Fold this protein.
Amino acid sequence: MRETPSRADSQETLVSPSPALPALANQSSLPSTQSYNQLPGKGTLGQPEPRGPGPETYRPAAGPRRRWPWIVLTFALLLLVIGAVVMAIVIPPMLRASNANNDNRPKPAPTRSPDWAATPTPAPAATERDGVPDDEAKVLAQLTRLEEEWAEANVKGDKEALERILADEYVGGDNGHNKREYIDTLTPDDSIKSWEISDVTVEQDRDQATVEGTLKDETTKGTEVYQFNDKFVWRDRRWQAVASKTTRVR
């Protein structure tokens, strides 16, 4: 058996008298209205069901932003910067080293032009300057010794010594005889008893030198004094005479 609800929110149903029963309405034994308990079963007032937001108000939740494209781009830019710095540091020294190697390579010798004259211009007397002595005292001693050997070769007729002392282009004497004429006509001079060289001076210009001095001969006829002026060049690592002039002063 269901109990009648006693809740405060229970409602009573009001019943109006039916128009078809007017007689009953006039009966004093019945009240004008009568209340009846609510029939079994709970009646509830309809509540509007909640409606969700419409399509126009729906917004999907924002997901996490993708950051990997920015990371890749930043890494690529970093690589470009590092590459540029490496190129700026490494390449210039390599280029300078390459240019230095090119400069140190032996240059090809110039070829003779067919338009040149058939007869080449004679080269200067001094063709080799390597090892040219530049100490004044040393040069003076060398050339003084060479003048003494020259004077001794004239007295003894030493042609081999003159081959070494005279350069191939030698010219000397009053008549301008050359090396071959000088050596071929050389003979020992028995009239000279002794000789002496003095007052030797040297003027050097790189590989060329001019020697001046005095030669005194004691001969069977008496004393003879000469002033000489000889020119030398440094060639084949030694001094060689290219010209001479001798003047008798007594």
Residues 1-39, 41-46, 110-128 have pLDDT under 50 and may be disordered.
